[in-house]
Amino acid sequence: MKTAVMIGATGLVGSELLTQLLADERFGKVISLGRKKVDLPHPKLEQHVIDFAAPSSWASLVRGDVAFSSLGTTIKAAGSQEAQRKVDYQYQLDFAQAAAANGVPVYVLVSAASANATSGIFYSRIKGELDRDVQRLGFTQIRIMRPSLLGGNRKDARFGEKVGSVMLAALNAVGIARRRREIHGSVVAKAMINAALDASGGTRIFTLDEVFTEAARA
């Protein structure tokens, strides 16, 4: 059985990922690093409360067969672009660097459909920069998920995303905006696990349609 190490377990995708990993017999241990523990007692779960800003204090904990990263925030929650960059780029890069240094062979990242390192849009640019930079770390296998608008039960429901979800559903019903249709966090989580257990090496970036397909793969 494999050991998974992850960050982002309190988020929309991360909480679904954690639940699925704990239920998956192919994983015998799940190590979760975060600013706070999740209320989910389980014999397979090992939790560590960490300070993401001090990677030297937790880097040694990033060990296992697969590293999953689904950390993320919004500029509204973070308060500034600088603060959002720390969460959406730097903290995740620090985690990936620790995983690579400790010999974790497989790295799976939740990115965004708009990720582009040269974009003039701040959010798209930092997502693209992270996608680019983790590919330079020498993992045996890298899987990058690029979903669109995420659906599911958020603890901090976002009005704008609710409106966007309704609009995209309406547009998709008439065949418009299919490439930006909503995807449930549980589907992304399932795709992450399936992709992580694919024995083929190298890097693969999953578009929205491919995330749906990978989640459905037996």
Offer a concise description of the structure:
This protein has helices spanning 12-23, 75-78, 81-101, 122-134, 159-173, 185-196, 208-216, and strands at 2-7, 27-34, 45-49, 66-69, 106-110, 141-145, 150-151, 183-184, 202-206. With 218 residues, the chain is α/β, with parallel strands linked by helices.
Task: Characterise this structure.
With 218 residues, the protein is α/β, with parallel strands linked by helices. The protein has one domain (2-216): Rossmann fold. Helices cover 39% and strands 19% of the residues. It is built from seven helices and nine strands; from the N terminus they run E-H-E-E-E-H-H-E-H-E-E-H-E-H-E-H. The chain has helices at residues 12-23, 75-78, 81-101, 122-134, 159-173, 185-196, 208-216; strands spanning 2-7, 27-34, 45-49, 66-69, 106-110, 141-145, 150-151, 183-184, 202-206. The strands form two sheets. It has a seven-stranded parallel β-sheet with strand order 3-2-1-4-5-6-9, sandwiched between helices. Strands 7-8 form a two-stranded parallel sheet. Helix 1 (12-23) packs across helix 6, helix 3 (81-101) packs parallel to helix 4 (122-134) and helix 6 (185-196) crosses helix 7. The longest helix is centred in the middle third of the chain and has 21 residues, at 81-101. It is globular and about 45 Å long. The two termini are 18 Å apart. 38% of the residues are buried.
